[in-house]
Design a protein that fits this description.
The complex is a heterodimer of chains A (318) and B (281). By secondary structure, chain A is mainly alpha-helical. Chain A has a domain of 188 residues: MetI-like (MetI-like fold, Orthogonal Bundle). Helix content of chain A is 69%, strand content 0%. The two termini of chain A are 32 Å apart. Chain B has 281 residues and is mostly helical. Chain B has 2 domains: 56 residues, no CATH class; 209 residues, MetI-like (MetI-like fold, Orthogonal Bundle). Chain B contains 11 helices and no strands. In chain B, helix 3 crosses helix 11 and helix 7 runs parallel beside helix 11. Chain B is globular, with a radius of gyration of 24 Å. Classes of the chains: A mainly alpha (318), B mainly alpha (281).
Protein backbone atom coordinates (compact mmCIF):
# COMPACT_ATOMS: atom_id res chain seq x y z
CA UNK A 1 0.00 0.00 0.00
CA UNK A 2 1.04 3.60 -0.55
CA UNK A 3 2.17 5.79 2.26
CA UNK A 4 -0.58 8.16 3.38
CA UNK A 5 -0.17 11.54 1.78
CA UNK A 6 -1.41 14.77 3.44
CA UNK A 7 -4.39 15.10 1.10
CA UNK A 8 -5.65 11.65 1.99
CA UNK A 9 -5.26 12.32 5.70
CA UNK A 10 -7.33 15.40 5.38
CA UNK A 11 -9.88 13.58 3.28
CA UNK A 12 -10.32 10.75 5.72
CA UNK A 13 -10.76 13.09 8.66
CA UNK A 14 -13.35 15.00 6.68
CA UNK A 15 -15.08 11.78 5.65
CA UNK A 16 -15.08 10.54 9.19
CA UNK A 17 -16.79 13.52 10.74
CA UNK A 18 -18.95 14.56 7.78
CA UNK A 19 -22.13 12.52 8.42
CA UNK A 20 -22.27 13.51 12.05
CA UNK A 21 -21.59 17.16 11.34
CA UNK A 22 -24.33 17.21 8.69
CA UNK A 23 -26.96 15.60 10.89
CA UNK A 24 -26.19 17.78 13.87
CA UNK A 25 -26.13 20.93 11.76
CA UNK A 26 -29.44 20.18 10.04
CA UNK A 27 -31.38 18.91 13.00
CA UNK A 28 -30.09 21.02 15.84
CA UNK A 29 -28.76 24.29 14.54
CA UNK A 30 -31.35 24.55 11.77
CA UNK A 31 -34.17 23.53 14.08
CA UNK A 32 -33.07 25.93 16.80
CA UNK A 33 -32.84 28.88 14.42
CA UNK A 34 -36.21 27.96 12.92
CA UNK A 35 -37.82 27.87 16.37
CA UNK A 36 -36.36 31.22 17.37
CA UNK A 37 -37.20 32.96 14.08
CA UNK A 38 -40.79 31.79 13.89
CA UNK A 39 -41.48 32.62 17.54
CA UNK A 40 -41.65 36.23 16.33
CA UNK A 41 -44.45 35.49 13.88
CA UNK A 42 -48.17 34.84 14.18
CA UNK A 43 -48.17 31.57 12.24
CA UNK A 44 -50.97 29.21 13.14
CA UNK A 45 -50.11 26.05 11.24
CA UNK A 46 -46.77 24.50 10.45
CA UNK A 47 -45.37 26.72 7.70
CA UNK A 48 -43.02 26.00 4.87
CA UNK A 49 -39.81 27.79 5.60
CA UNK A 50 -39.83 30.81 3.32
CA UNK A 51 -38.57 34.32 4.08
CA UNK A 52 -41.79 35.92 2.84
CA UNK A 53 -43.80 33.85 5.29
CA UNK A 54 -41.66 35.18 8.07
CA UNK A 55 -41.84 38.81 6.94
CA UNK A 56 -45.62 38.71 6.48
CA UNK A 57 -46.22 37.06 9.83
CA UNK A 58 -43.79 39.16 11.86
CA UNK A 59 -45.36 40.37 15.11
CA UNK A 60 -42.31 41.22 17.21
CA UNK A 61 -42.49 40.17 20.83
CA UNK A 62 -46.28 39.71 20.89
CA UNK A 63 -46.02 35.96 21.54
CA UNK A 64 -43.69 36.55 24.47
CA UNK A 65 -45.94 39.21 25.91
CA UNK A 66 -48.85 36.82 25.80
CA UNK A 67 -46.75 33.99 27.18
CA UNK A 68 -45.71 35.87 30.29
CA UNK A 69 -49.26 37.13 30.79
CA UNK A 70 -50.59 33.59 30.74
CA UNK A 71 -51.21 32.29 34.26
CA UNK A 72 -50.46 28.75 33.16
CA UNK A 73 -46.92 29.78 32.19
CA UNK A 74 -46.16 32.09 35.08
CA UNK A 75 -48.35 33.64 37.71
CA UNK A 76 -46.53 35.57 40.40
CA UNK A 77 -48.94 38.05 41.93
CA UNK A 78 -47.21 37.96 45.27
CA UNK A 79 -44.01 39.55 44.03
CA UNK A 80 -45.74 42.90 43.88
CA UNK A 81 -48.46 42.40 46.47
CA UNK A 82 -47.02 40.62 49.46
CA UNK A 83 -43.33 41.34 49.16
CA UNK A 84 -40.36 39.07 49.51
CA UNK A 85 -41.71 37.02 52.37
CA UNK A 86 -44.32 34.89 50.63
CA UNK A 87 -43.27 34.91 46.98
CA UNK A 88 -41.96 31.39 47.08
CA UNK A 89 -45.34 29.98 47.97
CA UNK A 90 -47.39 32.23 45.77
CA UNK A 91 -45.62 31.82 42.44
CA UNK A 92 -47.44 29.34 40.26
CA UNK A 93 -47.29 28.12 36.68
CA UNK A 94 -45.08 26.03 34.43
CA UNK A 95 -41.95 28.18 34.65
CA UNK A 96 -41.84 28.54 38.47
CA UNK A 97 -42.59 24.82 38.76
CA UNK A 98 -39.60 24.03 36.61
CA UNK A 99 -37.38 26.35 38.67
CA UNK A 100 -38.58 24.71 41.91
CA UNK A 101 -37.97 21.27 40.47
CA UNK A 102 -34.55 22.16 39.07
CA UNK A 103 -33.26 23.87 42.23
CA UNK A 104 -34.38 21.05 44.53
CA UNK A 105 -33.35 18.22 42.21
CA UNK A 106 -29.89 19.71 41.64
CA UNK A 107 -29.22 20.48 45.31
CA UNK A 108 -30.53 17.21 46.73
CA UNK A 109 -29.19 14.81 44.11
CA UNK A 110 -25.74 16.39 44.11
CA UNK A 111 -25.47 16.49 47.92
CA UNK A 112 -26.81 12.97 48.28
CA UNK A 113 -24.73 11.72 45.34
CA UNK A 114 -21.54 13.14 46.82
CA UNK A 115 -22.25 11.75 50.30
CA UNK A 116 -22.98 8.30 48.83
CA UNK A 117 -19.81 8.44 46.75
CA UNK A 118 -17.77 9.32 49.83
CA UNK A 119 -19.34 6.39 51.70
CA UNK A 120 -18.66 4.04 48.80
CA UNK A 121 -15.09 5.27 48.85
CA UNK A 122 -14.47 3.88 52.38
CA UNK A 123 -13.58 0.42 51.10
CA UNK A 124 -16.97 -0.92 52.11
CA UNK A 125 -17.90 -4.53 51.53
CA UNK A 126 -20.21 -5.44 48.65
CA UNK A 127 -19.49 -2.18 46.89
CA UNK A 128 -20.46 -3.68 43.54
CA UNK A 129 -23.86 -4.78 44.85
CA UNK A 130 -24.65 -1.37 46.32
CA UNK A 131 -23.54 0.39 43.16
CA UNK A 132 -25.61 -1.85 40.90
CA UNK A 133 -28.76 -1.42 42.95
CA UNK A 134 -28.29 2.34 43.32
CA UNK A 135 -27.94 2.60 39.55
CA UNK A 136 -30.93 0.38 38.71
CA UNK A 137 -33.55 3.16 38.57
CA UNK A 138 -31.41 4.87 35.95
CA UNK A 139 -32.06 2.00 33.56
CA UNK A 140 -35.82 2.53 33.75
CA UNK A 141 -37.57 5.00 31.53
CA UNK A 142 -39.08 8.06 33.20
CA UNK A 143 -42.53 6.77 32.24
CA UNK A 144 -42.12 3.66 34.39
CA UNK A 145 -40.63 5.69 37.24
CA UNK A 146 -43.54 8.11 36.99
CA UNK A 147 -46.20 5.40 37.12
CA UNK A 148 -44.59 3.68 40.10
CA UNK A 149 -44.25 6.85 42.15
CA UNK A 150 -47.74 7.97 41.17
CA UNK A 151 -48.97 4.72 42.69
CA UNK A 152 -46.87 5.10 45.85
CA UNK A 153 -47.92 8.69 46.43
CA UNK A 154 -51.56 8.36 45.50
CA UNK A 155 -53.76 9.05 48.53
CA UNK A 156 -56.06 6.04 48.05
CA UNK A 157 -53.70 3.14 47.36
CA UNK A 158 -50.16 4.11 48.14
CA UNK A 159 -47.93 4.52 51.13
CA UNK A 160 -50.42 6.86 52.82
CA UNK A 161 -53.16 4.22 52.82
CA UNK A 162 -50.73 1.54 53.98
CA UNK A 163 -49.39 3.54 56.93
CA UNK A 164 -52.89 4.69 57.93
CA UNK A 165 -54.11 1.11 58.00
CA UNK A 166 -51.24 0.28 60.32
CA UNK A 167 -52.74 2.78 62.76
CA UNK A 168 -51.06 6.14 62.08
CA UNK A 169 -54.26 7.90 61.03
CA UNK A 170 -52.88 11.37 60.41
CA UNK A 171 -50.03 10.23 58.16
CA UNK A 172 -50.13 12.16 54.90
CA UNK A 173 -48.18 11.19 51.80
CA UNK A 174 -50.83 11.51 49.08
CA UNK A 175 -48.77 14.22 47.44
CA UNK A 176 -49.91 13.40 43.91
CA UNK A 177 -53.33 14.90 44.65
CA UNK A 178 -52.04 17.80 46.75
CA UNK A 179 -51.57 21.10 44.91
CA UNK A 180 -48.96 22.36 47.32
CA UNK A 181 -46.95 19.15 47.48
CA UNK A 182 -47.18 17.75 43.97
CA UNK A 183 -43.94 19.33 42.71
CA UNK A 184 -42.08 17.86 45.70
CA UNK A 185 -43.53 14.47 44.79
CA UNK A 186 -42.00 14.82 41.33
CA UNK A 187 -38.70 15.90 42.88
CA UNK A 188 -38.63 12.69 44.97
CA UNK A 189 -39.23 10.54 41.88
CA UNK A 190 -36.55 12.45 39.98
CA UNK A 191 -34.06 11.95 42.81
CA UNK A 192 -34.90 8.26 42.97
CA UNK A 193 -34.10 7.88 39.29
CA UNK A 194 -31.04 10.13 39.07
CA UNK A 195 -29.05 10.00 42.31
CA UNK A 196 -27.34 6.70 41.49
CA UNK A 197 -25.99 8.21 38.31
CA UNK A 198 -24.77 11.32 40.13
CA UNK A 199 -23.09 9.02 42.66
CA UNK A 200 -21.34 7.09 39.87
CA UNK A 201 -19.97 10.32 38.40
CA UNK A 202 -18.81 11.58 41.79
CA UNK A 203 -17.25 8.25 42.69
CA UNK A 204 -15.24 8.27 39.49
CA UNK A 205 -14.16 11.79 40.37
CA UNK A 206 -13.07 10.71 43.85
CA UNK A 207 -11.12 7.77 42.47
CA UNK A 208 -9.32 10.12 40.12
CA UNK A 209 -7.81 12.08 43.04
CA UNK A 210 -4.13 11.39 43.59
CA UNK A 211 -3.39 9.09 46.55
CA UNK A 212 -0.54 11.40 47.57
CA UNK A 213 -3.05 14.08 48.53
CA UNK A 214 -4.41 11.68 51.13
CA UNK A 215 -0.97 10.78 52.43
CA UNK A 216 -0.06 14.45 52.76
CA UNK A 217 -3.31 15.27 54.55
CA UNK A 218 -2.75 12.37 56.90
CA UNK A 219 0.78 13.40 57.73
CA UNK A 220 -0.49 16.89 58.52
CA UNK A 221 -3.12 15.35 60.80
CA UNK A 222 -6.10 16.78 58.94
CA UNK A 223 -9.27 14.80 59.75
CA UNK A 224 -10.87 12.90 56.89
CA UNK A 225 -14.05 14.99 56.70
CA UNK A 226 -12.02 18.18 56.36
CA UNK A 227 -9.84 16.63 53.69
CA UNK A 228 -12.97 15.76 51.71
CA UNK A 229 -14.56 19.15 52.18
CA UNK A 230 -11.60 21.49 51.81
CA UNK A 231 -9.13 19.63 49.60
CA UNK A 232 -10.90 16.91 47.61
CA UNK A 233 -14.10 18.80 46.80
CA UNK A 234 -12.32 21.79 45.21
CA UNK A 235 -10.14 19.39 43.22
CA UNK A 236 -13.25 17.73 41.84
CA UNK A 237 -14.46 20.95 40.26
CA UNK A 238 -14.51 19.64 36.65
CA UNK A 239 -16.59 16.60 37.66
CA UNK A 240 -18.90 18.76 39.76
CA UNK A 241 -19.47 21.16 36.89
CA UNK A 242 -20.15 18.37 34.40
CA UNK A 243 -22.54 16.68 36.83
CA UNK A 244 -24.29 19.99 37.45
CA UNK A 245 -24.79 20.55 33.72
CA UNK A 246 -26.16 17.04 33.17
CA UNK A 247 -28.58 17.28 36.11
CA UNK A 248 -29.61 20.85 35.34
CA UNK A 249 -30.31 20.23 31.67
CA UNK A 250 -32.25 17.11 32.63
CA UNK A 251 -34.32 19.19 35.06
CA UNK A 252 -35.06 21.92 32.52
CA UNK A 253 -36.33 19.42 29.98
CA UNK A 254 -38.30 17.26 32.43
CA UNK A 255 -41.38 15.96 30.62
CA UNK A 256 -41.93 12.18 30.62
CA UNK A 257 -41.80 12.00 34.39
CA UNK A 258 -44.46 14.69 34.87
CA UNK A 259 -46.72 13.25 32.18
CA UNK A 260 -46.60 9.75 33.64
CA UNK A 261 -46.93 10.86 37.24
CA UNK A 262 -49.50 13.64 37.24
CA UNK A 263 -50.03 14.82 33.65
CA UNK A 264 -49.62 18.32 35.03
CA UNK A 265 -52.30 17.89 37.67
CA UNK A 266 -54.07 18.36 39.97
CA UNK A 267 -55.39 21.08 37.70
CA UNK A 268 -52.21 22.60 36.33
CA UNK A 269 -50.35 22.53 39.64
CA UNK A 270 -47.46 20.48 38.24
CA UNK A 271 -47.32 21.82 34.70
CA UNK A 272 -43.81 22.29 33.29
CA UNK A 273 -42.49 24.25 30.26
CA UNK A 274 -41.98 21.18 28.06
CA UNK A 275 -45.57 20.13 28.68
CA UNK A 276 -46.69 23.68 27.88
CA UNK A 277 -44.83 23.49 24.57
CA UNK A 278 -46.29 20.11 23.80
CA UNK A 279 -49.94 20.88 24.61
CA UNK A 280 -49.90 24.11 22.60
CA UNK A 281 -48.24 22.39 19.68
CA UNK A 282 -51.30 22.02 17.44
CA UNK A 283 -53.70 24.76 18.59
CA UNK A 284 -51.40 27.57 19.64
CA UNK A 285 -48.17 27.32 17.72
CA UNK A 286 -46.95 30.85 18.54
CA UNK A 287 -47.12 30.05 22.26
CA UNK A 288 -45.29 26.79 21.72
CA UNK A 289 -42.50 28.46 19.79
CA UNK A 290 -42.00 31.33 22.21
CA UNK A 291 -42.06 28.94 25.19
CA UNK A 292 -39.44 26.81 23.40
CA UNK A 293 -37.26 29.85 22.88
CA UNK A 294 -37.48 30.81 26.55
CA UNK A 295 -36.33 27.27 27.38
CA UNK A 296 -33.49 27.54 24.89
CA UNK A 297 -32.33 30.76 26.54
CA UNK A 298 -32.53 29.11 29.98
CA UNK A 299 -30.51 26.21 28.63
CA UNK A 300 -27.94 28.57 27.13
CA UNK A 301 -27.38 30.21 30.52
CA UNK A 302 -26.50 26.80 31.93
CA UNK A 303 -24.49 25.51 28.98
CA UNK A 304 -22.39 28.41 27.73
CA UNK A 305 -20.28 28.75 30.89
CA UNK A 306 -19.77 24.99 30.83
CA UNK A 307 -18.65 24.92 27.18
CA UNK A 308 -16.12 27.63 27.93
CA UNK A 309 -14.83 25.76 30.97
CA UNK A 310 -14.78 22.29 29.43
CA UNK A 311 -13.76 22.95 25.86
CA UNK A 312 -12.48 26.53 25.71
CA UNK A 313 -9.21 26.12 27.58
CA UNK A 314 -7.96 23.21 25.56
CA UNK A 315 -8.50 25.15 22.35
CA UNK A 316 -6.05 27.76 23.57
CA UNK A 317 -3.61 25.08 24.65
CA UNK A 318 -3.33 23.56 21.19
CA UNK B 1 -8.88 5.40 50.27
CA UNK B 2 -6.30 5.23 52.98
CA UNK B 3 -8.55 5.74 55.95
CA UNK B 4 -9.87 2.29 56.47
CA UNK B 5 -9.50 1.96 60.22
CA UNK B 6 -12.90 2.84 61.59
CA UNK B 7 -14.26 2.14 65.02
CA UNK B 8 -17.29 -0.13 64.98
CA UNK B 9 -19.87 2.60 65.78
CA UNK B 10 -18.55 4.53 62.79
CA UNK B 11 -18.79 1.45 60.61
CA UNK B 12 -22.30 0.80 61.85
CA UNK B 13 -23.36 4.36 61.02
CA UNK B 14 -21.81 4.02 57.57
CA UNK B 15 -23.64 0.82 56.71
CA UNK B 16 -26.84 2.13 58.27
CA UNK B 17 -26.75 5.16 55.97
CA UNK B 18 -26.06 2.93 52.97
CA UNK B 19 -28.96 0.69 53.97
CA UNK B 20 -31.37 3.60 54.33
CA UNK B 21 -30.68 4.72 50.79
CA UNK B 22 -30.81 1.12 49.61
CA UNK B 23 -34.31 0.84 51.06
CA UNK B 24 -35.36 4.06 49.31
CA UNK B 25 -34.15 2.61 45.99
CA UNK B 26 -35.56 -0.90 46.47
CA UNK B 27 -38.98 -0.13 47.97
CA UNK B 28 -40.57 1.09 44.73
CA UNK B 29 -39.37 -2.07 42.94
CA UNK B 30 -40.83 -4.26 45.68
CA UNK B 31 -44.07 -2.26 45.71
CA UNK B 32 -44.24 -2.67 41.92
CA UNK B 33 -43.88 -6.42 42.29
CA UNK B 34 -46.39 -6.62 45.16
CA UNK B 35 -48.92 -4.59 43.19
CA UNK B 36 -48.46 -6.78 40.12
CA UNK B 37 -49.32 -9.85 42.21
CA UNK B 38 -52.42 -8.38 43.86
CA UNK B 39 -55.91 -8.90 42.46
CA UNK B 40 -57.64 -5.61 41.60
CA UNK B 41 -60.31 -6.04 44.30
CA UNK B 42 -57.55 -6.57 46.83
CA UNK B 43 -55.81 -3.34 45.86
CA UNK B 44 -58.85 -1.19 46.47
CA UNK B 45 -60.61 -2.79 49.41
CA UNK B 46 -58.54 -5.17 51.51
CA UNK B 47 -56.33 -3.78 54.26
CA UNK B 48 -52.74 -3.27 53.20
CA UNK B 49 -50.82 -6.51 53.37
CA UNK B 50 -47.21 -7.21 52.58
CA UNK B 51 -48.15 -10.71 51.53
CA UNK B 52 -51.49 -12.47 51.06
CA UNK B 53 -52.77 -15.87 49.98
CA UNK B 54 -54.71 -14.21 47.19
CA UNK B 55 -51.54 -13.04 45.50
CA UNK B 56 -51.00 -14.66 42.13
CA UNK B 57 -49.34 -14.16 38.81
CA UNK B 58 -52.76 -13.71 37.15
CA UNK B 59 -51.99 -10.17 36.03
CA UNK B 60 -49.00 -11.46 34.09
CA UNK B 61 -51.38 -13.56 32.00
CA UNK B 62 -54.32 -11.14 31.87
CA UNK B 63 -52.22 -8.23 30.62
CA UNK B 64 -51.69 -9.84 27.20
CA UNK B 65 -55.48 -9.98 26.73
CA UNK B 66 -56.19 -6.51 28.09
CA UNK B 67 -53.59 -4.95 25.76
CA UNK B 68 -53.27 -7.38 22.85
CA UNK B 69 -50.33 -5.50 21.33
CA UNK B 70 -48.27 -5.61 24.52
CA UNK B 71 -45.77 -8.12 23.13
CA UNK B 72 -45.43 -5.95 20.08
CA UNK B 73 -44.76 -2.87 22.26
CA UNK B 74 -42.04 -4.61 24.23
CA UNK B 75 -40.47 -5.81 20.99
CA UNK B 76 -40.76 -2.31 19.44
CA UNK B 77 -39.03 -0.76 22.43
CA UNK B 78 -36.11 -3.11 22.15
CA UNK B 79 -36.03 -2.93 18.36
CA UNK B 80 -36.02 0.89 18.28
CA UNK B 81 -33.37 1.12 20.99
CA UNK B 82 -31.21 -1.49 19.19
CA UNK B 83 -31.57 0.22 15.81
CA UNK B 84 -30.73 3.58 17.37
CA UNK B 85 -27.69 2.04 19.07
CA UNK B 86 -26.43 0.37 15.87
CA UNK B 87 -26.83 3.49 13.73
CA UNK B 88 -25.39 5.77 16.40
CA UNK B 89 -22.29 3.58 16.72
CA UNK B 90 -21.76 3.62 12.94
CA UNK B 91 -21.60 7.41 13.05
CA UNK B 92 -19.82 7.65 16.38
CA UNK B 93 -16.84 5.36 15.81
CA UNK B 94 -15.21 7.25 12.91
CA UNK B 95 -16.16 10.62 14.35
CA UNK B 96 -14.78 9.78 17.80
CA UNK B 97 -11.58 8.62 16.11
CA UNK B 98 -11.35 11.92 14.26
CA UNK B 99 -11.83 13.81 17.53
CA UNK B 100 -9.28 11.67 19.34
CA UNK B 101 -6.50 11.67 16.77
CA UNK B 102 -6.83 14.28 14.06
CA UNK B 103 -6.47 18.02 14.24
CA UNK B 104 -8.98 20.21 12.56
CA UNK B 105 -10.13 23.77 13.17
CA UNK B 106 -12.50 24.38 16.10
CA UNK B 107 -12.15 20.76 17.20
CA UNK B 108 -12.92 21.19 20.88
CA UNK B 109 -15.39 24.01 20.44
CA UNK B 110 -17.44 22.08 17.90
CA UNK B 111 -17.64 19.08 20.22
CA UNK B 112 -18.75 21.39 23.01
CA UNK B 113 -21.48 22.84 20.81
CA UNK B 114 -22.63 19.38 19.66
CA UNK B 115 -22.75 18.18 23.21
CA UNK B 116 -24.75 21.10 24.46
CA UNK B 117 -27.32 20.91 21.67
CA UNK B 118 -27.59 17.26 22.59
CA UNK B 119 -28.82 18.40 25.95
CA UNK B 120 -31.65 20.40 24.39
CA UNK B 121 -34.84 18.55 24.81
CA UNK B 122 -36.86 16.90 22.11
CA UNK B 123 -39.66 19.21 23.20
CA UNK B 124 -37.72 22.36 22.36
CA UNK B 125 -36.94 21.08 18.89
CA UNK B 126 -40.21 19.20 18.55
CA UNK B 127 -41.81 21.55 16.05
CA UNK B 128 -38.94 21.83 13.56
CA UNK B 129 -38.33 18.08 13.89
CA UNK B 130 -41.98 17.44 13.07
CA UNK B 131 -41.57 19.63 10.01
CA UNK B 132 -38.44 17.75 8.90
CA UNK B 133 -40.10 14.37 9.44
CA UNK B 134 -43.16 15.48 7.53
CA UNK B 135 -41.09 16.69 4.58
CA UNK B 136 -39.08 13.49 4.48
CA UNK B 137 -42.25 11.41 4.72
CA UNK B 138 -41.01 9.65 7.83
CA UNK B 139 -43.98 10.33 10.12
CA UNK B 140 -45.70 7.18 11.39
CA UNK B 141 -42.78 4.90 10.61
CA UNK B 142 -40.08 3.34 12.78
CA UNK B 143 -37.71 5.89 11.28
CA UNK B 144 -39.60 8.76 12.92
CA UNK B 145 -38.49 7.38 16.29
CA UNK B 146 -35.07 6.13 15.22
CA UNK B 147 -33.74 9.24 13.44
CA UNK B 148 -34.26 11.74 16.30
CA UNK B 149 -32.95 9.13 18.74
CA UNK B 150 -29.75 8.80 16.74
CA UNK B 151 -29.36 12.55 16.35
CA UNK B 152 -29.70 13.12 20.09
CA UNK B 153 -27.24 10.39 21.08
CA UNK B 154 -24.40 10.97 18.61
CA UNK B 155 -22.74 13.85 20.53
CA UNK B 156 -22.70 11.96 23.85
CA UNK B 157 -21.40 8.89 22.07
CA UNK B 158 -18.51 10.81 20.55
CA UNK B 159 -17.72 12.44 23.87
CA UNK B 160 -17.57 9.10 25.68
CA UNK B 161 -15.75 7.09 23.00
CA UNK B 162 -13.19 9.81 22.33
CA UNK B 163 -11.75 9.54 25.83
CA UNK B 164 -11.38 5.79 25.30
CA UNK B 165 -9.62 6.10 21.96
CA UNK B 166 -7.26 8.70 23.43
CA UNK B 167 -5.98 6.07 25.85
CA UNK B 168 -4.83 3.75 23.05
CA UNK B 169 -1.09 4.35 22.58
CA UNK B 170 -0.32 6.32 19.43
CA UNK B 171 2.84 4.24 18.91
CA UNK B 172 0.76 1.29 17.70
CA UNK B 173 -0.79 3.36 14.93
CA UNK B 174 2.52 4.96 14.05
CA UNK B 175 4.02 1.52 13.66
CA UNK B 176 1.23 0.63 11.25
CA UNK B 177 1.82 3.86 9.29
CA UNK B 178 5.52 3.01 9.06
CA UNK B 179 4.57 -0.27 7.45
CA UNK B 180 2.58 1.69 4.91
CA UNK B 181 -0.95 1.19 6.20
CA UNK B 182 -3.53 3.87 5.39
CA UNK B 183 -5.41 5.66 8.14
CA UNK B 184 -8.69 3.90 7.47
CA UNK B 185 -6.89 0.54 7.37
CA UNK B 186 -5.24 1.39 10.69
CA UNK B 187 -8.58 2.37 12.18
CA UNK B 188 -10.11 -0.91 11.07
CA UNK B 189 -7.28 -3.31 11.86
CA UNK B 190 -5.38 -1.68 14.73
CA UNK B 191 -7.57 0.77 16.62
CA UNK B 192 -10.96 -0.93 16.49
CA UNK B 193 -9.85 -4.32 17.87
CA UNK B 194 -8.14 -2.53 20.75
CA UNK B 195 -11.17 -0.34 21.36
CA UNK B 196 -13.70 -3.18 21.66
CA UNK B 197 -14.22 -2.75 25.43
CA UNK B 198 -14.70 0.99 24.99
CA UNK B 199 -17.09 0.48 22.09
CA UNK B 200 -19.09 -1.96 24.18
CA UNK B 201 -19.25 0.48 27.06
CA UNK B 202 -20.44 3.32 24.84
CA UNK B 203 -22.88 0.97 23.11
CA UNK B 204 -24.49 0.02 26.42
CA UNK B 205 -24.80 3.65 27.52
CA UNK B 206 -26.29 4.60 24.15
CA UNK B 207 -28.76 1.71 24.41
CA UNK B 208 -29.90 2.81 27.87
CA UNK B 209 -30.26 6.37 26.60
CA UNK B 210 -32.19 5.25 23.53
CA UNK B 211 -34.46 3.05 25.61
CA UNK B 212 -35.23 5.87 28.04
CA UNK B 213 -35.88 8.67 25.54
CA UNK B 214 -38.24 6.99 23.05
CA UNK B 215 -41.50 8.17 24.61
CA UNK B 216 -41.55 11.78 23.44
CA UNK B 217 -40.64 10.91 19.86
CA UNK B 218 -43.15 8.08 19.81
CA UNK B 219 -46.16 10.13 20.88
CA UNK B 220 -45.19 13.05 18.65
CA UNK B 221 -44.13 11.47 15.39
CA UNK B 222 -46.05 8.21 15.37
CA UNK B 223 -49.78 7.52 15.41
CA UNK B 224 -49.59 3.88 14.33
CA UNK B 225 -50.40 1.65 17.29
CA UNK B 226 -48.40 -1.32 15.98
CA UNK B 227 -45.19 0.73 16.01
CA UNK B 228 -45.46 2.26 19.51
CA UNK B 229 -42.80 1.41 22.11
CA UNK B 230 -43.68 0.13 25.59
CA UNK B 231 -43.76 3.47 27.48
CA UNK B 232 -46.51 4.70 25.13
CA UNK B 233 -48.29 1.34 25.29
CA UNK B 234 -48.42 1.40 29.10
CA UNK B 235 -50.98 4.21 28.87
CA UNK B 236 -53.51 1.71 27.57
CA UNK B 237 -53.84 0.25 31.05
CA UNK B 238 -55.32 3.57 32.09
CA UNK B 239 -59.06 3.33 31.44
CA UNK B 240 -61.75 6.01 31.73
CA UNK B 241 -62.95 4.67 35.06
CA UNK B 242 -60.17 2.63 36.56
CA UNK B 243 -56.49 2.02 36.05
CA UNK B 244 -55.52 -1.65 35.82
CA UNK B 245 -52.65 -1.05 38.22
CA UNK B 246 -51.69 -4.67 38.74
CA UNK B 247 -51.47 -5.35 35.01
CA UNK B 248 -49.66 -2.09 34.36
CA UNK B 249 -47.02 -2.91 36.96
CA UNK B 250 -46.74 -6.44 35.60
CA UNK B 251 -46.30 -5.09 32.07
CA UNK B 252 -43.76 -2.51 33.20
CA UNK B 253 -41.74 -5.15 35.07
CA UNK B 254 -41.87 -7.55 32.12
CA UNK B 255 -40.91 -4.77 29.74
CA UNK B 256 -37.90 -3.55 31.69
CA UNK B 257 -36.70 -7.06 32.49
CA UNK B 258 -34.54 -7.47 29.35
CA UNK B 259 -32.85 -4.14 30.04
CA UNK B 260 -32.38 -5.03 33.70
CA UNK B 261 -30.70 -8.32 32.79
CA UNK B 262 -28.38 -6.64 30.29
CA UNK B 263 -27.65 -4.03 32.93
CA UNK B 264 -26.79 -6.64 35.55
CA UNK B 265 -24.09 -8.18 33.39
CA UNK B 266 -22.72 -4.98 31.91
CA UNK B 267 -23.08 -2.78 34.99
CA UNK B 268 -19.35 -2.46 35.50
CA UNK B 269 -18.82 -1.33 31.93
CA UNK B 270 -21.77 1.01 32.11
CA UNK B 271 -20.38 2.83 35.13
CA UNK B 272 -17.08 3.21 33.30
CA UNK B 273 -18.86 4.37 30.15
CA UNK B 274 -21.08 6.92 31.80
CA UNK B 275 -18.18 8.45 33.62
CA UNK B 276 -15.54 8.23 30.91
CA UNK B 277 -16.30 11.61 29.43
CA UNK B 278 -16.44 13.39 32.74
CA UNK B 279 -13.10 12.25 34.10
CA UNK B 280 -9.85 13.66 32.82
CA UNK B 281 -6.68 11.71 33.37
Amino acid sequence: MDRPNPLFRNLSSKLASAPMVLIVLCVFVGGTLWTILFSFTNIKILPIFTPSEWVNGFVGFANYERLFNTDRWMNCPAITKIGTEAWKFKCAGAMPNMVTFALLAITISMTLGFLLAVMMDQKIRLEGVFRTIYLYPFALSFIVTGHVWAWIMSPEYGLQAAVRKLGWESFSFGWIADRDMVMYAIVIAGIWQGTGFVMALMLAGLRGIDEDIWKAARVDGIPAWRTYLQIVLPMMKPVLVTTFVIVASGAVRVYDLVVAMTDGGPGIASDVPTRYVYTNFSANLGQSLSASTVMLVTMAFILIPWIRLEFGKKEQGH
Amino acid sequence: MLIDRYSWPQKLALYAAMAVFLTFILLPFLEMFRTSLSPMSHLFHAPYEIWSDKFSFDAYFAMWKKVPLLGRYIWNSIFIASAVTALTMIFVIPAAYAYARLDFPLKNLSLGVFLSVNMFTGAVLLIPLYRVMNTLGLLNTYWSMIVPGVAFLIPTGIWLLRSYLEKIPRELEEAAFMDGASRLYTLRRVVLPLAVPGIMVVGVSVFIGAYAQQYLFAITFNQVAELQPLPAGLNQFIGYQTVEWNQMMAAALTGVLPVMIVFLFLQKYLVAGLTAGAIKE
